[in-house]
What we know:
The chain is an all-alpha fold and about 575 residues long. It has helices at about 20-55, 60-85, 90-105, 110-130, 130-140, 145-175, 180-185, 185-200, 215-235, 240-265, 280-310, 315-325, 325-345, 345-370, 375-395, 395-400, 410-440, 445-460, 465-485, 495, 505-550. It has 4 domains: about 1-10 and about 15-210, MFS general substrate transporter like domains (Growth Hormone, Chain: A, Up-down Bundle); about 215-270; about 275-435 and about 520-580, Growth Hormone, Chain: A; about 440-520, no CATH class.
Amino acid sequence: MSNGDLTHMPASTDEPTGAPRRWLALAILLAAGFMDLLDTTIVNVAIPAIRGSLHSNYAGIQWIVAGYLLAVAVGLITGGRLGDIAGRRRVFVIGVIAFGLTSLGSGLAVSPAMLIATRVLQGMSAAIMIPQILSIIQVNFPRSEQSKALALYSSVAGVAVMSGPLMAGVLLNVVGLGWRSIFLINVPVSVLVTISALRVVPESKAPDAPKLDLGGVALVSTALLALLFGIIQGRELGWPAWVFALMAAAIPIFGLFAVYERRKERRGESPLVPPSLFRERAFSSGLVVVIVFFSGLVGFFLAFTIFLQLGLGYTPLDSALTTFPSSIGLVVASQISAKLAPRLGRKLLMGGAVIMALAQGGLIFTVNHYGPGVSQWNIRPVIFVFGLGMGLILPSLADVIIAGVHQRNAGAASGIINTGMQVGNAIGVAIIGVILFAAIGSHAAKSAASVEPQISKRLDALQAPPALRAQVLTGFRRCFVDRSHQEDPAVVPASCRELASAQLPPAAQRELRGVLATAGVKARKANFVTAIQRALSYEVAVFAATFLLLFLLPAGSEKRLEETVEVPGATDRVAEGVAS
């Protein structure tokens, strides 16, 4: 990173005045950030409609989501560096235009392959657009106003993440526009943001901008792709040996990247990632905190959405309305966080981690107490408290971590921290997915057995022969267990098609099928209630670990907080992977 970069120079003794139309520029930047974050979660709700329209198989649907996430994660470090070299507004506008065009391509896709390709390109567009947002905020706002601007950005980011499922439910179920609308809605927004940015947002870049480290880009991109592909797709592929080999291959590639970057630094050249960053205790330990924290955040919303929709049978709109109070809590607490962070520093983050861990424990208690009958209003107060904890952490996490990093390396630090968030997201989604679905499979037989008395009672009333009774109960149990182990929820196992009741009259057969369907719903809800409690126990452990890891950050970092440059793009990647 060049020392001549305007956004990374040591703070002067005079308070900068800031750009004249900086608040209007902020609104434009927030619109772009909202559009990107909304797109990461809105797709999940439309998956069934996309599958039916494009006749995609399950693997294709998974890549519509995973392709976007991989492209974003792999491109963030490079995207942040491009802004320093070519100009932050220029790269931002190019990213917005590309995001709009790829959204148009996604909305017009005629096949799963075309949609996957446009989603990958859309992720690449986001990777060069998003890192510029907070860099531009740094340049345009005086230090005394940056906390307020970043708190607004954090609030908008949180609302965008939570609004994706809600907006998708409105577009698909209420307005009835179809799945293509979730992509096409980005096109007019991109046009407006592009025109406004060119007119309002001033340009900034490093006066002595270094050349792009192409060798570093190739190495780090290859390593990240190997690591994240395995993490994101491992469970869907059944964790074959080659997936583990691919993830293991990322280790020597990262090692080669480190050696390559160290040599460039010794020769006085500009490495993509300065190795000296990792000699800073605040940064190296803070990166661990970021990975652990985000491994719980995104994974939670994924697992809980699965619980609400697949387990309890909520519609996507009802599910979104159930978890939306977390965004309200985030908005409220982020305003408090911006004021308290300079005085409390890591203590504020610790308080947020404790609140989030306690909220997860509260959810376990709530689900265990109410069981399958748990309601939206039983859940919403606890989700709101969880959002309060998020709001205490997200606006200030990067600031506290960057406090010990020399300002000349702030830009490189931003790319690494953003990538760390993506790695944490992917790891968390993979781990909580394994826990949740393993619990669903292992507890299935017990859940099926819990409703067998209900089936037996009805078989008695229908005067079913003993042989038929045993056949029906055994078949029901086998069908339920097989379905609980099914990777693709849309596929009906063969055992479920073999349930026989031919020895009963037609009317009795219809009644028995209704009884079995009702019993299946009851067993499914009981099964998911048990499974989600195990998954939430992982969440408690993650946020408790975050609390403990925060002790690794240097004490007194809050004293340096106001003198430290913000990390570009640290808050905007909160929900990547939700959509896993």
